[in-house]
Amino acid sequence: MTKRGPSLRHWGVRHNLAEVAEALAIVLRDLETGAHDHEDAAAQLRHDFAHLVAHLNHAWTAIWISNTAYETVGDRHLHLVNLTVPNYCGRLSLVEAERPAVWKRWGIVVPAIELINPKAAGAPLRAALGEVERIIDTIDAGEDDPPRREALRHDFARVLGHLCCAWHTKWMSDEQIARLDEPTLDAMRHTLPDFAAPTSYQIVGLDDPMPWEAKVAH
To answer: How is residue 36 annotated by DSSP?
Structure first.
């Protein structure tokens, strides 16, 4: 019996994207209802974002290996998959999540009272949710055709970029965000905060071997 090759219909793909969509909806609800209106909210948001990035990593991994291989990778190397971020755009860089030096270049000033601006964080998170739902709709409506990696890497890059932008702008006022130019916003989208600290993300090229050596024949 021939094993299936790369496919968007591998069970781990939709499962993990649905987890991303559900988690994004919860974060947005919490922002809208004021659940993040306290000074410790950034720590919870960081945990939420680490959860989102982990499921996005798993969804990408599950596309390219068989269901059986993904089950093995997920069981034995769950933590490694959580921490291995594909460099979808080829320009991704990693910085500290808390007060990275690049914030000064972007004009980000940490306020004395660290309250999250729901509008600032919410706009890119809603955009990320829209992207994820669109990918899920494509999976549900499509045939089991070979996935187009070039298009998919841009889809996943946009989702991750929106998450990055939400984190970097979360304390900014509406007026400060309105003054951001497109080069700065683009840099924010390609600068990944290390939500996983004290461990650390590993950014890998799309053609690089994975840390768990998941080059499994289908």
So the answer is: T
Q: Are 132 and 101 in contact (CB under 8 A)?
A: no
**Amino acid symbol at 190:** H
DSSP 65: S
- Quick one: how far is CA 147 from the chain centroid? 20
> Using one digit for the tens of pLDDT, what is the confidence trace for 198-210?
999 999 999 888 8
Please tell me the chain's helix, strand, coil percentages from 3-state DSSP, rounded to the nearest 5: 60, 5, 35
Q: Where are the beta strands (DSSP E) in 76-204?
A: 84-86, 93-95, 191-193, 202-204
> Residues 200, 54: contact at Cβ < 8 Å?
no
pLDDT tens by residue, 99-134: 999 999 999 988 888 889 999 999 999 999 999 999
Locate 55 and state its tokens. Answer: 């499921």
For tokens 């559900």, name the residue: 22
Neighbours of 59 (CB within 10 A): 26
Give the global pTM.
0.92
Q: Computed from CA positions of residues 78, 84, 85, 86, in that sequence, does the dihedral angle turn out positive or negative? A: negative
Rounded CA separation 189/161 (Å)? 4
pLDDT tens digits, one per residue of 23-36: 999 999 999 998 88
Q: How many CB atoms lie within 10 A of CB 154?
A: 13
**CB 88: neighbour CB atoms within 10 A?**
24
